[in-house]
Amino acid sequence: MIKAKEPFRFYTRLHLSELTGLRAVTLGQLLKLIKRVPGSCIYHHTHRFLQQHQYLSPEPPNDFAYWVTEVLGEDRLGERLASIDTVQFPTIHSLREKIINAIEEYLRERPFSRIKFANEGEAFHFVKSASFVMPTKYISNNLFEFAEVLKKITIDSIYFHIFESRLRLEKHTNDFSNWLEDSLGEKDLADEISHLDPYTHTMEDLRETIVNLIEKRLLKED
Asked: How far, in Å, are 85, 123, 159, 182 from residue 214 at the CA level?
């Protein structure tokens, strides 16, 4: 069993959602605020479903798409925003720019949509996502230990290493793939995990899939 150059330390996170006090009642206001709110707001409104309902696996809803469709009645724009493939964006900045571009393009086509008002009590309230990252007691020095720890860590830990490390912390890939390639030289396995679409799995499904890939790799050594 190959020993890793550097052990893998598993972390977990506590999550809080905080109101920012910022609100929009028109599409123009929504666009203006999307351009300047913290990245943690963009993250919250595109990943809220995954953070709050980690055992379910339909496509995660996009809060911006929902609001412009259900509140403003701008169905075409809602479809464009809902079709944004979140997993394709390596950073919050690039995801934010995609959302901005979609709204700006729509407003060029339908400029009067900019001033359509939401009904009383249906403003879009911006919320930001705050995470507190903490080390766990688990450390892995080789591939076998890594698989065994993956079977028992919390889904919050899996969420942190798969989602937050890649998008919020702007790493080029998830923590698991990064360690497997850099510390163990397991490039093929790292690529397999990196190419999984985590947005179409529950956290438990994702755990099981990753463990199965690792155990399949371990069988080749027997």
From this structure: 27, 47, 18, 16
Q: What is the DSSP letter of 93?
A: H
CA distance 38 to 23: 14
pLDDT by residue (tens digit) across 9-59? 999 988 788 999 999 999 999 999 999 999 989 988 988 766 555 544 445
Report the alpha-carbon angle 88-19-66, nearest 5: 50
> What is the C-alpha R_g of the chain?
20
Which amino acid, 143? L
Distance separating the N- and C-terminal Cα atoms of the chain:
10
The closest alpha carbon to 34, from 108, 102, 131, 112, belongs to: 102
The structure's pTM equals: 0.75
Pinpoint the alpha helices (H) of 71-152: 75-82, 92-109, 143-150
Give the residue-averaged pLDDT of 94-114. 96
